[in-house]
Structures are given as structure tokens and as C-alpha cells.
């Protein structure tokens, strides 16, 4: 557990190398519960919605807050790629961060307790996940072999035991699960009470639905691919931001030889969003998904794409080529993907992010 | 989701007896096993009679029974851990559950005895989801579902034909790993079942598995024998080879493989360091086969488990035979196995 008193305990891990990005339209009271774990870290708050509103941040946190005016000022015309009136705007926080690691969390997510009743330091677990290798090429039946008390099982090839760098750590949620609107409508009372004590690497070639509620990643390895798309006001779709980023990230990490983990840590998700509102946002996505998934399953990135940005630009070309016929939205999205990379490179001029090709 | 009712007459429990005294093993499993039919195969190399307590519906097969069924000469050798495949061969049931004779029932986090058979059958009777990863694991478990973003067209899933359970206490680690960490015990009960995605390879341990015999029985092949194969799991790779074959076949036929619950409690035996000498051969062999299995594609014409095994045997002989004669031998065993399966099945 992070110890903010100075009793000679080790400093919080990655204290100066990690930013916590939080999108919000209300107040940030939830930070009070996270204080023991978050206070040592710098926060990037991305204020969505009406920029004239004041967001109350509990005292004692070191933070930078960006509202729509700031986004417009910093990006100029390129601000068009950042969603408005949708938590997808959080990816602006990834772009302006100067740190190596990002942890992003929703403002209705609180500290969960593990089965023994102890509060879970989600940030610490994400850091552990990111700092030890992933194993995408061969499934380990005992899950993450780098966890204490675990290891590779008999039959796991020794040549694959070094693993690859971990680019993304995808955490889960107790209480309100991340269901889509139709499922929420059918099962409004279902709560996730099952604590699954595992972290595992998602195998190469397998896609998954990424959720942005409790997510950490290595900005240097995968940052430019974490674009959360065009959602919210003026857009035909919502609640597909994190999933879009997840599919892009997965094909790129597979191509570059990086890993994505899912599982621990859990947070406690307290707010069930309105399923009817959700249905309206997701509606088109439910149909489009049936084309989007085969698209990502069949994407081939050429060998020349050796950096995340190159992969992402190539992906945007293929989106334009193959998904525009599903809906003109994808044409806009492909353009926005390019704009995003241009904006990213302008704000992060030190060099292209690369993973192991 | 659905409450699954287990039909006793659909399940055979196959036990490979590598120890002659099965008394405590059987008594520990009695509450769970007693309602089912058991097929106990005595390792042909084991001397002395098997000791089996009463109260079970068990059929026992020994060396002479094996020879009677398969004839005296066969490239398939049912000795050591491979003796259980004979049980798979002669079973007439839809589901086979197979547990090593050094395992006893485990307890879950609430202290309740885990009914491994019921969990395996539940895994086999609910769909698998190999084409897209569900982050809340098995969506068909009570209290779970598909998460936002899971394509609707993939939500009906496919038949699960193989259920790979896990082990508390002595996990199935290889000899070098256990030798390096002699005190390591697996005490983490991970409350999950998940589908291993299509085209992902995995080491299928034979210690605690169940499968749909009607769908994939022939695909569980007793084929790869090490020259120095021994009577401890550390000294074998037969199940690992078998598992690689089964997974490719399942992927090809559009079936699913699950991993996770149930746990069994695996008890101590053997010396990892002693076994190191024997196991090293197997470890080295497996390194050679990984790229092979990664790129292995079966022809469209293979539409049954038998057909897949035959095709796979051809490809193994062609591509791996030249690396080590052990693989040519394995290919022959696979071909022989399919013939046996057909002849015993029709008898």
C-alpha cells in the first residue's frame, strides 16, 4: 500500500513517471477515497462539457486541468479530433502528458476490497502488470507466470519464457459490470461479485473489448494508438471510444511484439448509467460492430510499419478503404485518426514511439 | 445462466492406475465418483494387484485386457500415464473425465469440496467462446455475461469439447521449475473458467481433464513417448503433445477448449531434481514443435476428429520426422490410434 508518511518506507512506485488521467463533468469527490493511493502522483484532469463550470478538486493533489477552451487553444484546428461531451475526451490527457505511464480511471470508480476485506491499491497492481513481461505467444494455464506464487506450467516452451514488454494493463470492475445497453436492460440487477484472482495476457491474434474505466498503459510503447475516437456531440455513436482504441491497440501490439494484460486489479464501479441513454448511444455500434470486428481480425500491417505512429496511420488508411462503405462516419474517423497522430507528434516531438518490431 | 443437470449415464470417469493401492484415492473421491461408472486402467508395467475399495461401479482393465483388445503388436503403447488412453478408447459414454491417481478433491475459497466432475461436465455442456475474448471470463457462468463490445453474432458460442482443470498444492510445473523452487505450492484459487482463444496454443496437462468423447475422442492421441519416459508427470510429454494436437483440431473443427475450474488437490511425490535428467529430452523436443504447431493448418477436407488426426499424422511425419525419429514414431502411433478407434468403436 502506498504510504504517504515518511517512515522510511519505499517511495510510491513510478511516482514521477506516471500521470493519472481523469475525465469529468462533475466534481472529483471520488478522489478522497483514492487519496492514500493517488496523492503522490500528478493528475491530468480533462474537463468535458461546459468549460465555464468549475470542477472542484479535493485539496492536496498536484494536478493540471484542461477544459475545452484549453484543448482548442493547444491544438488549434486539430482539436476537432478530440470528442466533445463524451469521456472520450480523456485521450487529450494522454497526449499532453509528459510521463512514460498513464493510468486512467472514471470518476464513478472507487476503491474495491479484496476477498479478505483489504482495500485494493489498483494503481500499484497496474504498475506491477506493466513492469513485468506479457506472454502472448503461448497460453499459460496458471495465468500470469510472473505473479508471486505462480510460474510457467510444464510444456510451456522455454524459448518463450522471457516474454515481451507489456504495453497495456486492463483492469476489471466489481459491482456494476461493464455491460452493453441490451444486457443492462435484461439484467438491471446483476452485480459482479466474483473476484477472480488472476492477471493474464491476451493471446496474439485475439481481440477483446477494452474498457477505459480502469486502464493503464505505457505511453512510450503504445500511446499514439490510444486514440478514443469521435464520440459525443455531433457524432452518431457513443460508448465505443475505449473499444475502438482497444482494437487498434491490440492489432498494433500484436504486430510490434508487445503484450496486453487483463484481470486484476478490480475497482468498485458504483454508477449504473441509464440503459436507455446507453442504447441510443450504442445502437448503431451494435450493427457496425459486425463489420468492425472482421475488419480488425483481418488487418495486416506491413513490415515497414515499425513504429506505433506508422502502424496507426496505416490503420487509418485501411479504415477509410474498408469501413467507409459501412457508414461515412468511418471516413471522418479515419481522418480524425490522422489528425490525432499529427497532434500527438507535435506535442511529443522527441521521437516516434516504438515497440519491438 | 442455465442450470445444468448431469446425466450419470453420460459420463465415464477414467483413471490410469500408476499406483497399485488406490484405496485412499478412491475414498477421497467417493462422494463425487460413486454415482458414476469408472474405468480403471492398470499401468501394464505395474506389478501386483490393484487395491480398490468397494462402493463403486468400476470396471478394471489390466495388461491382458489391453492386449486382447489391441492385439499383441502395436505402435501405440498404453504404458505409464498413457494407459488412460485405453480407457478413452473403450468408453462408450459421451463425456470422459480423467484425473491422475495422485490427486484428491480440492476445497474452494469457502471451504467447500469441489465437485470436479460436475464442474467439468458443466464446462462441456455450456458454450465456449474462442473467437473473441470476454474480459469477464466465461459469460455463461452465473453472475457473469458478455461485456460491452462483445459482438452479438459471436454470443451463441460453439461446443466446448475439452475442459482443462487446474491443480492446487503441487501445480503442474516442469522439473527444472520445481527443482528451482522446491517449496513452491499453488495456493491461489482462481475462480474462473475461460475459453482459450482460437489459434492460441496451450500446454494441456493430462492431470485433470474432461472431454466430449463423441466429438473429439480420437483427437486425444497417445503418441509422443520419450525414450526415457517415466512414471512421474515430470518425465512425460505425452499429454503436452496430445494437447497441442487437440487444440489445433478443435480450432480447425470450430470447437472450443476451456481452462480454469475445477481445481484438484495434487499431492506430493517424486523428486524434481531426479526427474530433471529424464525430462530434459522432452523439454528440448517441445522447443522444436512449437513453430510447427503455430503454423499448422489442416486441409478443409478434414471434417471429423479422425480425419484430422490422419492428416496431422501425415504432416508430422513429413515435417517433423526428419528432426527426430521420435516424431516419425509419434505419427505412426497417431495413424494406428485412429485405426484402433474405428475398430474398437464399431465393435
Automatic annotation (TrEMBL), chain A:
GO terms for biological process: cell wall organization; UDP-L-arabinose metabolic process. One of its GO terms (cellular component) is cytosol. Pfam families: RGP. It comes from the Eukaryota. It catalyses: UDP-beta-L-arabinofuranose = UDP-beta-L-arabinopyranose. It is found in: Golgi apparatus. The record marks 154, 161 as: Required for activity. Its EC number is 5.4.99.30. InterPro entries: Nucleotide-diphossugar_trans, RGP, RGP_fam. Keywords: Cell wall biogenesis/degradation, Glycoprotein, Golgi apparatus, Isomerase. Glycans are attached at residue 154. Its main location: Golgi. GO terms for molecular function: UDP-arabinopyranose mutase activity. Probable UDP-L-arabinose mutase involved in the biosynthesis of cell wall non-cellulosic polysaccharides. Belongs to the RGP family. This is UDP-arabinopyranose mutase.
TrEMBL record, chain B:
One of its GO terms (molecular function) is UDP-arabinopyranose mutase activity. The keyword Magnesium does not apply. It is found in: Golgi apparatus. One of its GO terms (biological process) is cell wall organization. GO terms for cellular component: cytosol; Golgi apparatus. Its EC number is 5.4.99.30. InterPro entries: RGP, RGP_fam. Coiled coil: none annotated. The record marks 148, 155 as: Required for activity. It catalyses: UDP-beta-L-arabinofuranose = UDP-beta-L-arabinopyranose. It comes from the Eukaryota. Keywords: Cell wall biogenesis/degradation, Glycoprotein, Golgi apparatus. Glycans are attached at residue 148. PANTHER family: UDP-ARABINOPYRANOSE MUTASE 5-RELATED (PTHR31682:SF4), UDP-ARABINOSE MUTASE (PTHR31682). Probable UDP-L-arabinose mutase involved in the biosynthesis of cell wall non-cellulosic polysaccharides. Belongs to the RGP family. This is UDP-arabinopyranose mutase. It comes from Flemingia macrophylla. The lineage of its organism: Eukaryota, Viridiplantae, Streptophyta, Embryophyta, Tracheophyta.
